[in-house]
Amino acid sequence: MSIVIRDVREHELDSILALNNAAGPTILPLDAARFRKFFDTAEYFRIAERDGTLAGFLVGFGSDADHDSSNFHWFRAHCDRFFYIDRIVVASRRRGGGVGRAFYADAQSYAELRYPLLTCEVFLEHDADPVRLFHGSFGFHEIGQHVMPESGIRASMMSKDMCSYEWVQGTYGDALPDEPWLPRPRASSAVAADA
To answer: Which residue ranges run through the membrane (predicted)?
Structure first.
């Protein structure tokens, strides 16, 4: 019963979108065009599989991304450089089984080499205490609140310092070694950044 986290594949987008839109009130629903934009531009877009079955996904953007989320822009106004977790969704039958923790460990491994802060938001409506506790157990803390103009939902804006970032930057700068275990930006976002 291992959890495998890997980059999303284009043919999986419909299944992942259905998972997103079935997640309930703590995740905003999306249409296919918006989801396709995630695939085309997200720096980090990975899925989790458990026993060969889709168990969840996580989408993230670096602070220089062309991303139109009001929460992302809130962080841009309040933080210099950061990696933003736009959304994490775990299939209801897989919740409580370690998928979320595996995602956050993977996303942190990616972010700490490139950004001084890892950021996310938690909606304060809909019984947010378990979700806030989950994030607190990973070292996140609230740095402010934001009411999203598109939905009127209040969010707790959370961040976590990436303790390895300063050492990695001082040692390697932007020239990280080419190691097979080192998480890389998705090819589509690297192409978009070079364009």
So the answer is: none
